[in-house]
């Protein structure tokens, strides 16, 4: 599942400028769309972080397309303990959600391998992604508690 972000072009049609994929296959169409949209939102937040820094959306998780880790703006300036604990909780949930999706992807792959082996005695071939110039690289896979795949609260300007 993919989310395509497009802009109008000079010919009256639309041109894709950014494509994000769901990090793993899902059983429902809605879940796959939600995952792909979440991936798009985190990378767009990173791309437009200067514009978002002055809006209420500054606390959305942000991630560069080539990295596994994400960051959330530090809420210390707000002087709001509830917001600080909510942001810490969001960072933990985002980290665990990404790890759960990666584990789900590994389980699905192992399941496909076992089904192919039982049915035909062979392992399934890896699926090759289709190349698209607007396509952002797919998020790399990580193991649970991988320090490179954490969502953290940013304490300095990047």
Task: Lay out the secondary structure.
Layout: E1 2-8, E2 14-21, H1 29-47, H2 49-52, E3 70-73, H3 81-120, E4 151-154
Parallel strand pairs: 3-4
Antiparallel strand pairs: 1-2
Describe the structure.
Residues 124-134 have a biased composition (Acidic residues). Residues 122-158 are annotated as: Disordered. Residues 143-158 have a biased composition (Basic and acidic residues). The protein is an alpha+beta fold and 158 residues long. It has one domain. Helix content is 40%, strand content 15%. The protein has three helices and four strands; from the N terminus they run E-E-H-H-E-H-E. The strands form two sheets. The chain has a two-stranded antiparallel ribbon with strand order 1-2. A two-stranded parallel ribbon has the order 3-4. A hairpin with a 5-residue loop joins strand 1 (2-8) and strand 2. The model has no long low-confidence stretch (mean pLDDT 78).
Beta-strand percent range = 5-15%
Q: How big is the Rg?
A: 18 Å
What structural class do helix, strand and pairing data support?
A: alpha+beta
Instruction: Give the biggest beta sheet.
Output: 2 strands, antiparallel
Supply the number of structural domains. 1
Helix content: 25-40%
User: End-to-end distance, in Å?
Assistant: 31 Å
- The DSSP helix count reads 3
Count of DSSP E strands? 4
Pick out the low-confidence regions: none
How would you write the strand order of the largest sheet?
A: 1-2
One letter per element, helices H and strands E, the order comes to: EEHHEHE
Mean pLDDT: 78
Anisotropy-based shape: flat
């Amino acid at each position: 599942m993919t989310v395509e972000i497009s802009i109008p072009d000079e010919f009256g049609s639309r041109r894709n400028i950014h494509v994000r994929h769901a990090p793993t296959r899902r059983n429902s169409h809605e879940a796959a769309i939600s995952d792909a949209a979440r991936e798009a939102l985190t990378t767009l937040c990173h791309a437009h972080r200067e514009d978002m820094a002055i809006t209420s959306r500054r606390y959305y998780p942000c991630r560069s397309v080539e990295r596994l880790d994400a960051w959330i703006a530090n809420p210390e300036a707000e002087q709001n303990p509830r917001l600080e604990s909510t942001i810490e909780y969001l960072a933990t949930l985002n980290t665990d959600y990404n790890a759960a999706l990666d584990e789900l992807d590994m389980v699905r792959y192992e399941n496909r391998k076992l089904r192919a082996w039982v049915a035909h005695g062979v392992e399934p071939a890896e699926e090759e992604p289709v190349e698209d110039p607007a396509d952002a690289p797919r998020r790399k896979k990580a193991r649970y508690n991988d320090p490179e795949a954490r969502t953290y609260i940013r304490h300095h300007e990047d």
